[in-house]
């Protein structure tokens, strides 16, 4: 989990609080008077502070099942009526979670429910349980979703079968062989909704970690004159571009080593403590009589506890440098600890990377006491 995802999880965790559970109990009771709201509230609030975000989501779904009368399909009727009444999109994901837990033996009804519930939050986590149980049948349904008129349903077609979906388990079969999802990605390659395109790009970026050539082969056939497909391509290749993969760079119109001079690459201050901000300043001058497309990144080689370093690349700018033109850039970054990254004292090398090549270096030293 990235630091951003970790912060988001912490914030969303507190959406599952006693006020929210009281709201869910009241709303469920309003659509089904036989629902035992008092028992539901007791079940979901017991040991609440000990539960993570996903544990809170699951416990809410389990408590709903415990306190709703009838069998699965009868309980679904109540949840269909409840969905529009839940007052937070992420919290509404308790409904797909319910389907994942109790609908495994009711495939058709469960797929219809996930399609409906995803319009209020997302069914991306829940549908993965059905992929594990019956990959072929579930992907066939998801291919139909990719053609749906509702953008939330189309997004689910892509997001639900991402091989490395954050906050969820990996789908090992699709990590090993992504070809079964190709029809879904192809169907969405020119989707007009940014919400959908982001999912497709993230899905493809997942795949580049294991099968970069497969991704490049797939998207190299996509229309060059369609802005939607080109948006997906640029974002799908971001990890490969940071690695300087020349085939990926070629696909976004970046060809070869830049013809430039680095007039300035400064990192200041050169001595910092945790919580301080470093500033990067870059000056570039073109030597070419032609316009050049530049992908400009920087990397920080973080000192690890054992004294070795771990390199992380950050996006700075993708731009066109005019013939014989100049460019000045600056960027600021706070150096602080996250749950997923702890900083250690030492000299941190900062690299300036243009079109996949390291063209300059500077450093700052971190003190931690």
Explained architecture:
With 369 residues, this protein is of the alpha+beta class. It folds into 2 domains: 3-251, Alpha Horseshoe (Serine Threonine Protein Phosphatase 5, Tetratricopeptide repeat), CATH 1.25.40.290; 260-367, Immunoglobulins (Immunoglobulin-like, Sandwich). It contains 17 helices and 8 strands. The strands form 2 sheets. Strands 2-8-7-4-5 form a 5-stranded mixed beta sheet, with no helix packed on it. A 3-stranded antiparallel beta sheet has the order 1-3-6, with no helix packed on it. A hairpin with a 5-residue loop joins strand 4 (292-303) and strand 5 (309-321).
Q: Output the radius of gyration.
A: 24 Å
Query: What are the secondary-structure elements, in order, as H or E?
Result: HHHHHHHHHHHHHHHHHEEEEEEEE
Total DSSP E strands: 8
Q: How many discrete domains?
A: 2
Give a brief rundown of this model:
This protein is of the alpha+beta class. The protein is 44% helix and 21% strand.
């Amino acid at each position: 989990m990235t630091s951003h995802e970790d912060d988001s999880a912490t914030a969303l965790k507190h959406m599952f609080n006693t006020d929210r559970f009281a709201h869910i109990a009241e709303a469920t009771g309003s659509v089904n008077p036989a629902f035992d709201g008092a028992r539901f509230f007791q079940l979901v609030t017991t040991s609440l502070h000990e539960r993570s975000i996903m544990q809170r989501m699951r416990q809410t779904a389990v408590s709903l099942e415990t306190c709703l009368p009838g069998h699965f399909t009868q309980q679904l009727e109540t949840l269909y009526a409840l969905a529009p009444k839940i007052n937070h999109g992420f919290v509404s994901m308790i409904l797909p979670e319910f389907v994942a837990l109790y609908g495994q033996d009711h495939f058709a009804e469960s797929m219809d429910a996930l399609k409906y519930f995803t319009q209020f939050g997302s069914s991306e986590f829940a549908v993965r349980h059905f992929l594990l149980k019956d990959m072929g049948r579930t992907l066939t349904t998801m291919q139909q979703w990719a053609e749906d008129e509702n953008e939330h349903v189309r997004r689910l077609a892509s997001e639900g079968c991402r091989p490395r979906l954050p906050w969820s388990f990996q789908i090992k079969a699709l990590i090993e062989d992504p070809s079964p999802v190709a029809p879904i990605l192809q169907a969405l390659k020119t989707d007009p909704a940014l919400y959908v395109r982001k999912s497709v790009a993230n899905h493809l970026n997942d795949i580049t970690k294991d099968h970069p050539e497969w991704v490049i082969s797939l998207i190299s056939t996509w229309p060059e004159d369609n802005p939607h497909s080109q948006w997906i391509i640029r974002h799908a290749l971001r990890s490969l571009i940071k690695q300087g993969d020349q085939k990926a760079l070629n696909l976004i119109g970046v060809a070869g080593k830049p013809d430039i001079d680095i007039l300035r690459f400064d990192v200041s201050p050169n001595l910092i403590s945790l919580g301080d901000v470093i500033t990067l300043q870059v000056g570039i001058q073109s030597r070419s009589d032609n316009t050049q497309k530049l992908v400009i990144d920087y990397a920080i080689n973080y000192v690890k506890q054992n004294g070795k370093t771990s390199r992380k690349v950050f996006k700075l700018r993708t731009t066109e440098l005019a013939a014989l033109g100049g460019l000045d850039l600056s960027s600021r970054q706070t150096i602080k600890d996250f749950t997923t990254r702890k900083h250690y004292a030492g000299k941190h090398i900062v690299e300036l990377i243009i079109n996949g090549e390291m063209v300059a270096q500077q450093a700052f030293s971190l003190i931690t006491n």
